Amino acid sequence: MGNINFNELKATLEKLGYTVSLFENKEKAADYLNAQIDGTSVGFGGSVTLKEMNLYERLASHNKVFWHNYPIPEGMTAADVIKGASQAELYIASVNGLAMTGELINIDGRCNRISETLYGHKKVYFVLGKNKIVPDYDSALFRARNIAAPKNAQRLKLKTPCALKGDKCYNCKSPDRICNALTVFWSKPYGSEYEILLIDENLGY
Asked: Which of 172, 146, 147, 148 is nearest to 159 (CA)?
């Protein structure tokens, strides 16, 4: 699977307590999740990766899916959808950086995405392409701050220095600041199942 040693990374993550699944492409990963998740409630974190997989459309045909990045259902507000995602049995998100040494890093603005990956769901899935994988913790942190965050700020049309220039984090004080909190998973938290899907394609930011 590409130039990354996915088997080595899989073994590292499994030693940290995660279930890990490897996929050649996003279609096979989406097929897997569509088969695994049926007749339940699912929350989505903001994610270009999940959008590129058309995962909402597939899962919503036979599950109750809450995603504030999708058109809000009639009669609901974005806040209602975010609350529904917080109460869902399962939660799916991507990551901004994954180190070959096992650390998973996410940066968030509203912080619903990172909070929902920490506690409260029966199972959390992290889904990511090979472009998110870097050698070590410092590289993962750098990627989250200086690659993923500026690209997401540009996508959301925010008025931040990183969105304007698209080159790095400026540690700004803008009201639109996208990097308000950071999570680092050193290993699998207690009390919930966690599965990491590694995909041999570039996906998302």
From this structure: 172
Phi, psi dihedral angles at 77 (to 5 degrees): -110, 170
Up-side HSE of residue 53: CA atoms within 13 Å toward CB? 32
Kindly report, residue by residue over 170-189, the tens digit of the pLDDT: 999 999 999 999 999 999 99
Cα dihedral 75→118→17→54 (10° resolution): 30
Q: Could you tell me the CA-to-CA distances from 2 to 91, 100, 193 in Å, in that order?
A: 28, 15, 28
Do 198 and 127 meet the contact criterion of CB atoms below 8 Å apart? no
Other C-beta atoms within 10 Å of 25: how many?
14
Quote the tokens at residue 59.
């899962």
The answer to whether the beta carbons of residues 56 and 64 sit under 8 Å apart is no
94 in the Ramachandran plot: left (φ > 0), alpha (ψ -120 to 50) or beta? beta
Query: CA 19 from chain center: how many Å?
Result: 16
Place of tokens 């009390």: 191
* Beta strand residue intervals within 11-71, DSSP E: 19-23, 41-44, 64-66
State pLDDT tens for residues 143-160.
Answer: 999 999 999 999 989 999
Based on DSSP, count helices (H) and strands (E) in the chain, helices before strands.
9, 10
First vs last C-alpha separation in the chain: 20
